[in-house]
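Q: What changes when farnesyl diphosphate is included in the input?
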Amino acid sequence: MTGAPEDRKIHVACIMDGNGRWARRRGLPRTEGHTAGEEALATVVRAAAARDVGWLTVFGFSTENWVRPRSEVRHILSLHRKLFARTAEMDANNARSSWIGRPFDEPGARTPVEVQRAIGKAMADTAGNDGLVVTVAFDYGSRAELVRAASRTIAASGGDCALIGAASIGANLYDPDLPPVDLLVRTSGETRISNFLLWQIKGAKVHFTERTWPDFDAAELDRALALLARGPSA
Ligand code: FPP
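A: The predicted holo structure follows.
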């Protein structure tokens, strides 16, 4: 597959929006939309692995999402546990689970212990797979990530400004091994970035689609990937 600026596989990032609208249009509770969204994500993981995508990073739960009704938050958390437990499928796709978000032991972090355990187990269980890396952003916000990276970089510099730059800040992101995003997808007709991977999307192409996330499938992924065939990212 072509389109990545360097000699590496492609990194696709998704803002999975529109679960609630998908449910409302069908006269279903919002939670059903999230359930369908988790299933769509499993489909997209399979499709991405089959297309030899290198990294798939999805916005599972933001630092802002905690204000949603408690029952909805509980349901979304249970879907994360379900997703992280899909070990057999990840193995079948030679895919590895990963996570970015506020480190569990830092002030302000809110990831419940059951989700922490599910993340740790998924990462350990799939560590031997060397194909697609599926990173879920949970309790994630890009500004918090950047403020933390800048603070750590400044602290480590000992006051020497020459040591503060893109390389040192990049090395202090939640996952320094995450390559730049080549293709950012946002579903459901919204054309905002919403505090997602602001550092990593510097040169990304962006695919906005009217489709809600539960309707996102392999064909829509192909339409998005076609953007990369029309020239490299800057
Ligand atoms: C947006 O729908 C989606 C989210 C709040 C993120 C949660 C995503 C899922 C549960 C999909 C499965 C993913 C994982 C990682 C388990 P919305 O509620 O904002 O939709 P609306 O804008 O139509 O109300």
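Observations recorded in class: The beta strands are 11-15, 55-62, 96-100, 133-140, 183-186, 205-208.
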